[in-house]
């Protein structure tokens, strides 16, 4: 069904929230801001409402949704009656809720329809910190299922304009809350493992370092291990047994080709290409003048060197200082969507260090990029 042009509103007034809550309660979808990315919400307790999310996004039905709550009472309603929340989960909630952390819990299948959990025994729950998101959930009076508000496979939206451009005609209301602060999705964590360890299923807004430090602070030598999947989703083992169903799909891809430029030391079986040769090849394969989008830290040596090559129109979207990966996180999806919308021929992204927010950034970059190249920048060995 087409709803025509969705309304975009910047007055986050009670009236707008009221209207959005009414739409949600009449089983429609509403796009709303969270601190991570914009979400496409529907009541999490109703399978018709939830099915509208899947059709608007073109989302595969085996990829479960996160239920967003505004209070602990709302969380408890989703869980089996009398369920005692494990200590690791309680600690994580105490420190990171509300915020960009999603936790798995055993689901109550008589309350949570299986379309939300894709038939899994667990339900993923998050309490967002964004005031509009919190107010909307509270006003609606029910948990809201919300994936990122983009067509399946595209980068996640961090501004209301991104949502409008992508989902125009497919959803009835977008609440404009300005740009998202975190810029990448929440960290999805499984703290229910029988070995007591905590598994990060999807790196995100809460860093592994944050998780480690909080568990150490609370439990000292008894702190659980934080296990992270660093493997790419294209990894075959991962494909066969994805830990979080969303990981197996192609993701975050703009319409134009994306190449990851790796500047770290290559593995022994790979020879890095001199930067000049790489740029020459780009030019040789182009028909007219190339316009190339570039996402790189503002103080990166690669950025300075590559944009000095003539014969290419460079369109740079800086990712903030190397020392601040949180800025790269905030700017990555915006950069991919903005450059894609500007009609560049291709997008290059420079690798950043997989530390703190950099881990989540590189997780998304690896999925967005169709290919990656190791680049050598020393001019002495060019060609
Ligand atoms: O920041 C976010 O998490 C955003 C905002 C809108 O809150 N939402 C979001 O939702 O990123 P989505 O649907 O794009 O990603 C949800 C991820 C997927 O990778 C999915 O497979 C995983 O969470 N997930 C959901 N339920 C799960 C479950 N029961 N077990 C394992 N993974 C689950
Ligand atoms: Mg998503």
From TrEMBL:
Gene3D superfamilies xrefs: DHBP synthase (3.90.870.10), Threonylcarbamoyl-AMP synthase, C-terminal domain (3.40.50.11030)
Name of the protein in question: Threonylcarbamoyl-AMP synthase
Entry GO terms, CC: cytoplasm
Organism, scientific name: Wolfiporia cocos (strain MD-104) (Brown rot fungus)
Entry keyword tRNA processing: yes
Chief location bin: cytoplasm
Function: Required for the formation of a threonylcarbamoyl group on adenosine at position 37 (t(6)A37) in tRNAs that read codons beginning with adenine. Likely catalyzes the conversion of L-threonine, HCO(3)(-)/CO(2) and ATP to give threonylcarbamoyl-AMP (TC-AMP) as the acyladenylate intermediate, with the release of diphosphate. Required for normal translation, by ensuring translation fidelity at the level of codon recognition, appropriate translation initiation selection and maintenance of reading frame. Also involved in telomere replication.
Location in the cell: Cytoplasm
Domain of life: Eukaryota
Similarity remark: Belongs to the SUA5 family.
EC number: 2.7.7.87
Every YrdC-like domain range: 14-206
Binding of ATP, residues: 59, 63, 122, 148, 156, 202, 252
